[in-house]
Amino acid sequence: xxxxxxxxxxxxxxxxxxxxxxxxxxxxxxxxxxxxxxxxxxxxxxxxxxxxxxxxxxxxxxxxxxxxxxxxxxxxxxxxxxxxxxxxxxxxxxxxxxxxxxxxxxxxxxxxxxxxxxxxxxxxxxxxxxxxxxxxxxxxxxxxxxxxxxxxxxxxxxxxxxxxxxxxxxxxxxxxxxxxxxxxxxxxxxxxxxxxxxxxxxxxxxxxxxxxxxxxxxxxxxxxxxxxxxxxxxxxxxxxxxxxxxxxxxxxxxxxxxxxxxxxxxxxxxxxxxxxxxxxxxxxxxxxxxxxxxxxxxxxxxxxxxxxxxxxxxxxxxxxxxxxxxx
Length: 327
Known about the structure:
Elements: E1 6-16, E2 26-27, E3 33-44, H1 47-50, H2 57-62, E4 63-70, E5 73-78, H3 80-91, E6 96-100, E7 107-115, E8 135-141, E9 148-160, E10 167-172, E11 174-177, E12 181-186, E13 193-200, H4 201-205, E14 215-220, E15 223-224, E16 230-231, H5 232-243, E17 252-255, E18 270-274, E19 280-284, E20 303-309, E21 314-324
Parallel strand pairs: 5-10
Antiparallel strand pairs: 1-9, 2-8, 3-7, 3-9, 4-5, 4-8, 6-7, 10-21, 11-21, 12-20, 13-19, 13-21, 14-15, 14-16, 14-20, 17-18
């Protein structure tokens, strides 16, 4: 019996990614697709003064949306930040760098993995083979932030030549605004769930102990399931503890000293380098990674997350669904 084969190839050659534009959709491969790698090539603007050489938040934030469409239906849909966070917490797939130059006009390169199956390189779980043009990818760029004068993008893909997958994963964004008090965020039904990534603006931006989601509960057909009550700050802390020493997504700070002023007068002596996982939590329905605990929504009439919020600010949910391949 021959060994299995995969192909890692360029789906989109390196090209300019103009600010505030949507890149036209381009075709991905026709073989079963396990992973996609998005590479950003960033040109610095005076990074030493702005301390942006050690911060990637602005670069991540510039990619406001990524979509992978299968026959017109979104399989992946979300901001680069949300997608990167989900891949980190679910699969341990963190962004990496090849160039990390800190000079003015220098280049930094960041690579973001996107997994499309229950595990990378799984022959049982990947996007199935398709016709050319049926599987498309597109992304949208925001404005250039300070410290960044230009950005290029390229995409590579991992195809599994002899795989016959039985399922793949889907993750798309649901955006809402919390209220002070009880509110519900409906989730899609029909597929089993492996987890749900949550984002909380209050935890990210407020200086008090108030969060946007507040206390959360999961309800299927109006019955509490898995998480009957849990505080969003606790979920956020658990997620952060699972990250380990992930130096690209872990928040931190760098020190800057103004030689012409006393340290006590340097208001910017400490500056945040990355936001890291701050504001994110994860409802994990597959903690053993073998499907033992996955949340079944087949036949359900309704599925929702109920929050009891403390801040009327933006929240997001990104369900991770397992989709069966039709035979």
